[in-house]
Design brief:
The complex is a heterodimer. Chain A is of the alpha/beta class. Chain A has 14 helices and 18 strands. In chain A, α4 crosses α5, α4 packs parallel to α6 and α5 crosses α6. A two-stranded antiparallel ribbon of chain B has the order 1-2.
Chain lengths: 446, 233
């Protein structure tokens, strides 16, 4: 018998006009690793939540069909009953941390499961060791970096020794080294894995099989090899790659100049003696590991932080897109969220929404959008005012390949109009005239 | 180090003593001692608690003499206001206001020490039958730094779109999205807890170290403090 059996599953959330999942049937065997792919809003998160029993028990809505996990029917078994059989890691580690110390956090699920008290510490430490995070055991979770937090979340899931591990875009906040370390730990776990990812090649490399959701329905299912071939037939969708063709040459006029700039948080120095000039028409990508100071440099360039030493000179207005912009929404309608950047002009806001493929959502509440859609909403809200300097912090996080291509096109167009662009990103393929490596906690020169 | 459970009892005892005392110097002394413990926390985390304690206490001290009617030693006499009557301030009202203000600051600072200096996980383990309530309190306390971070993020997001936030009214407009964001966080956390079996029967708990003689002494002091204050101070 397969570990996971899904039969004709359809899910419609309360108040939604269309189903999030439509007639999905699939099965997954013990120890099998499956990449779950699809464009933003295709239903990947809903399917993962259905496999964890959170749909329908936590989210409600109309649930049709049947989901069976290791013989347990999720309509009757609550998520708490499935714990130990399944474990799930969500996209944002900050929203799933319950306790204040790492060891207690990893032991939280084990305590709920009723594991004898004398075994708790050993099992929690074993799980931390499996993800290479044993040295974090006594740390406060508030003091950890995003990458460290995500490894703690994985340890919390692995400690349950699940038969089925569900991962919802778990590497979206991690740098390349962090993502590799995370996926290696997943591979070593030996259980069945369903990995939802927007970095398609990374997901396929880590899994034996792939399933692709298209507007809530299962659009493709096959081996890793077949999936790679299938991607070639989807150049405008999941198989979309970087835009071909050279970039226009950058101009000579400096839009922003950082001269011998220093900055720190408390006693911790993050930037020391940085020199960076970005010219009109130029796209500069800041790259480096988690916590190296890319965001700080981006904020200094945009004028959101004042340098502790040195000078920042800017020509024209700067627009800054923060990391995780979907968390920082201020209006009740998508179109109003964008319009506040142009004094409430709805026409300009609608045009900006069109460029990021969100005109259909103009009247929706921003918080009803998926994380990838919110990311694009943030881009529209910043670019609508046509700033001279555009500063984007991790703009492709949680964004599918097709939309990533659109963001790159938007950045190219901004540069072609004479604007300057700074992009802080883990994405090594992002279009750029120049890449600046930001070393961790060291003096940065560029 | 004192066991977190014993430290929690001592804080509760100090707060109870501050509420029971009738002498300003007792509640003021308790406030100063508790403030010293708060100042031992990292500067970035302690300021919202200190600001909240100071502002609320100052509010009580400034407003309550105008609203209460007590004593005969009039220091200042003001106009007659409909409903409230003659607005005046007596020395007795000032003493009462100082007492209530220092009581409030002691309670607020005891909470600050609890939030900033104690290991909540260990306290949860020691909470026994009231574990669920202690758990909710610990989660609520964790909300404070999250809210602070979200407020900074929201202000940056708005400034990043070219808008400057000037004045209380402009900043006040961020309160509603801040609350919406924290509700969304709470929902995500609840989902995560459900997915990890919270509420399931037969829960176990990671063992905590046993109390030593010093911890029992602190617990005894915690019980004695309000009794001594109520009877003699």
């Amino acid at each position: 018998m397969a570990l996971v059996e899904v039969q004709r599953l359809s899910v419609t959330y309360g108040g939604a006009s269309a189903p999030a999942l439509r007639d999905v049937s699939l099965s997954i065997g013990e120890g099998e690793t499956v990449a779950l792919l699809g464009l933003s809003g295709a239903g990947k998160s809903t399917l993962l939540r259905a496999l964890a029993g959170l749909v329908p028990h936590f989210h409600g809505g109309v649930f049709e069909g049947r989901v069976s996990i290791d013989g347990l029917d999720t309509r009757r078994a609550r998520p708490a009953d499935l714990v130990g059989t399944t474990a799930i890691v969500f996209q944002d580690p900050e929203d799933q941390i319950v306790m204040t110390r790492v060891l207690r956090e990893v032991a939280f699920g084990l305590e709920n499961l009723g594991v004898p008290s004398h075994e708790l510490q050993g099992r929690a430490e074993e799980a931390l060791e499996a993800v290479g995070a044993l040295e974090l055991r006594d740390r406060r979770v508030m003091e950890l970096s995003g990458g460290e937090l995500q490894r703690v979340c994985l340890a919390s899931a692995l400690a349950l020794q699940p038969k089925l591990l569900l991962l919802d875009e778990p590497t979206s906040q991690l740098d390349e080294a962090g993502a590799t370390m995370f996926l290696d730990a997943v591979e070593r776990a030996g259980c069945a894995v369903v990995l939802s990812e927007q970095r398609v090649r990374r997901a396929l490399a880590a899994c034996e099989r792939a399933m692709v959701l298209d507007d809530g329905a299962l659009g493709f299912e096959g081996t890793q090899q077949a999936a790679n071939s299938w991607l070639l037939t989807e150049p405008e969708g999941l198989g979309a790659g970087p835009i071909d063709g050279p970039l226009d040459a950058a101009g000579d006029e400096a839009v922003v100049e950082l001269r011998n700039v220093s900055f720190g948080y408390g006693e911790r120095s993050v930037v020391d003696g940085l020199d960076l000039t970005v010219r009109s028409g130029e796209i500069v990508v800041l790259q480096g590991p988690n916590g190296c100071g890319k965001t700080t440099i981006a904020k200094l360039a945009a004028g959101l932080l004042e340098p502790a030493g040195g000078q920042v000179e800017r020509r024209g207005r700067a627009g800054y897109l923060s990391q995780d912009p979907g968390r920082y929404l201020v209006r009740d309608r998508v179109v109003d969220e964008v319009a506040i950047g142009v004094g409430g002009k709805t026409d300009a806001a609608l045009a900006a929404l069109e460029t990021v493929g969100l005109s259909w959502a103009a009247d929706r509440h921003p918080r009803d959008l998926s994380s990838g859609e919110r990311e694009r909403l943030g881009i529209a809200a910043v670019t609508v005012g046509d700033p001279t300097l555009l500063v984007l912090d991790e703009p492709t996080r949680g964004v599918d390949p097709a939309r990533k291509r659109e963001i790159e096109l938007l950045v190219r167009q901004h540069a072609a109009r004479g604007g300057a662009v700074i992009v802080a990103t883990h994405d090594r393929d992002f279009v750029a005239h120049r890449r600046v490596a930001v070393p961790a906690l060291e003096v940065a020169h560029a | 180090m004192i066991a977190p459970g014993a430290a929690g009892l001592l804080l509760a005892g100090a707060a109870a003593a501050a509420l029971l005392t009738e002498r300003v110097w007792v509640s003021a002394t308790l406030s100063l001692v508790l403030l010293a413990f708060v100042l031992g926390a990292p500067a970035a985390r302690r300021w919202p608690y200190i600001a909240a304690a100071f502002i609320s206490s100052l509010g009580v001290f400034v407003l309550s003499p105008f609203l209460s009617v007590q004593g005969t030693s009039i220091i200042w006499s003001g106009p007659t206001v409909p409903v409230l009557g003659v607005i005046d301030v007596t020395s007795e009202e000032l003493v009462e206001a100082a007492l209530n203000a220092t009581r409030l600051s002691a309670v607020a600072l005891a909470f600050a020490v609890y939030a900033l200096r104690l290991d909540h996980d260990a306290m949860l383990a020691a909470a026994g039958r009231v574990r669920r309530s202690a758990f909710l309190a610990a989660l609520a306390i964790r909300l404070v730094p999250s809210l602070e971070r979200d407020a900074v993020g929201l202000a940056e997001a708005v400034r990043g779109r070219g808008l400057e936030l000037r004045g209380i009214r402009a900043r006040g407009q961020l309160v509603s999205p801040l609350v919406a964001g924290s509700l969304e966080r709470a929902l995500n956390l609840a989902e995560s807890m459900e997915a990890r079996g919270f509420g399931r029967a037969g829960r176990t708990c990671m063992p905590s170290p046993s109390w030593r003689a010093r911890d029992w002494a602190v617990a005894l002091l915690a019980l004695a403090l309000p009794v001594v204050v109520a009877l003699w101070l």
